[in-house]
Amino acid sequence: MNTKQVRSDRNDLNAAIVVGGLVIAWLLYDGIRALVQLFATAGSVTVTTRVPAQELTVAIGAGAPATVDAATLTVENVNGVSTVCLVLAIALRAVCLVGVTALGVVLCRRLMRGAVFDRVNSSLTFAMSIGFLAAGLAWAWFENMGLNGVFAALGGEFDGQWLLFLDGIPLFVAAIALGVLVIVFRRGASLQKDTEGLV
After folding, report:
1. Tens-digit pLDDT profile for residues 46-96
2. Cα gap 142→95, rounded to integer Å
3. % of the chain beyond a pLDDT of 90
4. Cβ-proximal residues to 149 (8 Å cutoff; 6+ apart), any chain
5. Which one, of 169, 144, 170, lies nearest residue 158 by Cα?
6. How far apart (Å, rounded) are the C-alpha atoms in residues 175 and 181?
7. Is residue 152 pLDDT above 60, yes or no?
8. 56 pairs with which residues across the strands?
9. Cα 104–chain centre separation
10. CB neighbour class for 128 (10 Å; exposed up to 12, middle 13-18, buried from 19)
11. β-pairing, 64-76 with 44-58?
């Protein structure tokens, strides 16, 4: 590999590491912001969620007819279990995504040092795949449990469970993509070992 290509690869990996650091900072900020918003009103929880579609007039100019299917609700008397579930939905998603990003930074640093097809990189990539999967599933599960309590406090019933899992599709796709990379790293490590044995 020529020097120009090596320099280009190093610059790309350095850029990825810097972006990873910025993403971690943003994820931490977003998680804290979401928790603060959840308890923005004393004695209540505030959530933004899908609601049954309804028509209303929105305050734009002289008013315009619209159909809305999402709203921000501030609800009192939500049971403790549901409140804890809403907190866990935010916290676990943030922790999982921060963890995945941190592992990605570690992977980039290893690639910079020339470690490509080895067992450690396979393990890091596998852990990142599981992290994305856990972020999507944990958020959807606990958000659903929390919203059940919110709607129950209002005398209604939350029926958007499947939509929560649809919101997690990008995370599930990322988990699958990284799962494929695990296979690539493992196959590369195996081929590299076989090649070394022939030399």
Report:
1. 999 988 888 988 888 888 899 988 889 999 999 999 999 999 999 999 999
2. 14
3. 59
4. 78, 79, 81, 82, 83, 85
5. 144
6. 10
7. yes
8. 66
9. 14
10. buried
11. antiparallel
Q: How far apart are alpha carbons 103 and 127 in whole angstroms?
A: 8
d(CA 173, CA 65): 36
For residue 96, give the nearest of 133, 121, 124, 126 by alpha carbon: 133
Amino acid at 195: T
Q: Please give the Cα distance from 147 to 75 (Å, whole number).
A: 11
One-letter identity of residue 136 = G
Give the chain's length: 199
Residue 190 banded pLDDT, cuts 50, 70, 90: confident
- Non-local (6+) Cβ contacts of 154 within 8 A are 73, 75
Structure tokens at 199: 């030399």
Report the 3 state secondary structure along the chain. CCHHHHHHHHHHHHHHHHHHHHHHHHHHHHHHHHHHHHCCCCCEEEEEEEEEEEEEEECCCCCEEEEEEEEEEEEECCCHHHHHHHHHHHHHHHHHHHHHHHHHHHHHHHHHCCCCCCHHHHHHHHHHHHHHHHHHHHHHHHHHHHHHHHHHHCCCCCCCHHHHHHHCHHHHHHHHHHHHHHHHHHHHHHHHHHHHHHC
